[in-house]
Design brief:
The protein has a single domain (33-151), classed as OB fold (Dihydrolipoamide Acetyltransferase, E2P) (Beta Barrel), CATH 2.40.50. The protein is 30% helix and 29% strand. It has helices at 2-24, 28-32, 46-51, 109-112, 150-159; strands at residues 57-70, 73-75, 84-88, 99-103, 124-131, 139-149. The protein has a five-stranded mixed β-barrel. Strand 1 (57-70) and strand 2 form a beta hairpin. It is globular and about 35 Å long.
Length: 161
């Protein structure tokens, strides 16, 4: 019986490893990058949010890549407050032109501010708010919803081991 169970586990492990190998050949960030209509169930990508800075309320999904402190400056460590986060379509993005800055409302700061939660770096989040400039840069302000997407973060980290 033990040999049978070990054989089954090894078989499933083999399939899992092959699947992992196949998926690692793809740009996982691009697979999970949102590209929708801006609703909660079909959020905008960060690039869509940057292109649609017209003040409308939309949902955006992206990866937390730092804390904006000026128009073209985003801190990736040594966070000084919980007031803002920068999102990008890739967890490894460093070009501020490919980021949207989110003004974190007081009700979300204890859970989503980077000074209090530096482990949020690289996390996938969805945010709903007004698409309008923040720090004279494409932004999301007056947010009404902010949620961490645990599955995408886990999957991204697993694939990039």
């Amino acid at each position: 019986m033990f040999k049978y169970l070990v054989g089954k586990v090894n078989s499933k492990l083999s399939y899992f490893l092959v699947l992992t190998l196949v998926l690692s050949c793809f740009n996982v960030a691009a697979i999970f990058a949102a590209s929708g209509d801006g609703s909660w169930d079909s959020p905008y990508s960060v690039s869509q949010a940057i292109s649609n800075q017209y003040g409308s309320s939309k949902t955006v999904q992206g990866y937390v890549v730092g804390q904006p402190v000026a128009t073209t400056v985003v801190n990736t460590s040594g966070f000084t407050n919980d007031y803002a986060i920068a999102l990008a379509d890739s967890a490894n993005e460093t070009n501020t032109s490919n980021m949207v800055y989110v003004q974190v409302s007081s009700s979300f700061r204890s859970s989503f501010g980077l000074k209090s939660n530096p482990d949020l770096m690289g996390s996938a989040v969805k945010v709903t708010g007004s698409l309008t400039n923040y720090f004279s840069h494409g932004g999301v302000k007056s947010i009404s919803a902010l949620e961490k997407n645990i599955f995408i973060r886990w999957f991204w980290r697993f694939i990039t081991l």
